[in-house]
Amino acid sequence: MRKIIISACLLGEPVRYDAKGTPVDHDLIRLWAEQGRLVPVCPEMLGGLPAPRACCEIDGLGGGAAVLSGAARVMGADGVDLTEAFVAGARIVLAQARAVDAPLAILKERSPSCGSGIIYDGTFESRRIAGSGVTASLLCAQGLKVFSEDQVEAAAAFLDSCDW
Question: What predicted TM-score, i.e. pTM, was given to this entire model?
Fold first, then answer.
């Protein structure tokens, strides 16, 4: 049975910047948890950041891929550059995914780490843009399929195609 990387906050763990969770109430998530398939991760905490912590956004164009290439930074609302922690956490998540042979991840949308389709624009003015976070970008670049919490059924369909 294939494992699934999942943002720990989606399981209600208080790991977000505000030390809260954002639990997803979905039958498939509950089933996968019961089956022991879920591998909860918080890239930001794995990278050494505490909860709570300053709200962060990617500063610069190109999202997480640009952060990974050094062309953009992850900045806290307090002005502190937290790029190294975000990149370190992404690498740890990738290592965990490889260790359990997970073909996919379900990650928290809009996060500078986990967003897979939408992130904030770096101005801390709640403006959303198309883009991926650091961890989502790294996982995709390494061949994992990344879904948001709004795409659980699509993740299940992909997982079914991987379960042999």
Answer: 0.96
